[in-house]
Structures are given as structure tokens and as C-alpha cells.
Amino acid sequence: MKEWFQLAFRPSVVKRAVKYALIVGFILIAINHSDAILSGQITRGRLLKMLLTVLVPYVVSTLSSVGVLLEMRRKSS
């Protein structure tokens, strides 16, 4: 588990995950919340949903990157 977290917090993994989270998160927010944004109906609950919308691609990217790094380590051993 310690190895997993070390890989997850590698600068290259974090940078990639942030980039994907911002791009995919923006697209998903535009699709799912643009009507509320345009009409000014932004509530705390909706803001929380938007933050979670960005968090999901971050987590998916991190899981994928760490999985590949672990697989590469196993194959090279």
C-alpha cells in the first residue's frame, strides 16, 4: 500500500491526473450543469457536485497511472 501511495503522489502522476481532471471535468460540468450556470442557479449542493465531477477523472487517471507503473515494475523484475 505504501508503494501505491508513493506512486500516486509522484509529480508526473499528479500532473497528468490534474490535466485530465480539468479537461474532462470542464466538459462534464458544461454538459451537466451549464443550464444552472447560465441561469445563475449555483447552490452549495451544485458546487459540491461540480467538485466531485472534477475529482472523478482525477481518481480514474491516478488509478490507471499507478496500475501501469506497478505492472511495469512487476514485468521488469
Describe the protein.
- This protein has 77 residues and is mainly alpha-helical.
- The protein has a domain at 22-70.
- The protein has three helices and no strands.
- It has helices at residues 2-8, 11-38, 44-76.
- α2 (11-38) packs antiparallel against α3 (44-76).
- It is elongated, with a radius of gyration of 16 Å.
Topology:
Layout: H1 2-8, H2 11-38, H3 44-76
> Main sheet?
none
Q: How many angstroms separate the termini?
A: 18 Å
- Class derived from helix and strand content: mainly alpha
Overall, the morphology is: elongated
Secondary structure tally, helices: 3
Strand content range: under 5%
Number of strands: 0
Helical fraction: over 70%
Mean pLDDT score, rounded? 95
Order of helices and strands: HHH
- The low-confidence runs, each spanning 5 or more residues with pLDDT under 50, are none
Using only C-alpha atoms, the radius of gyration works out to 16 Å
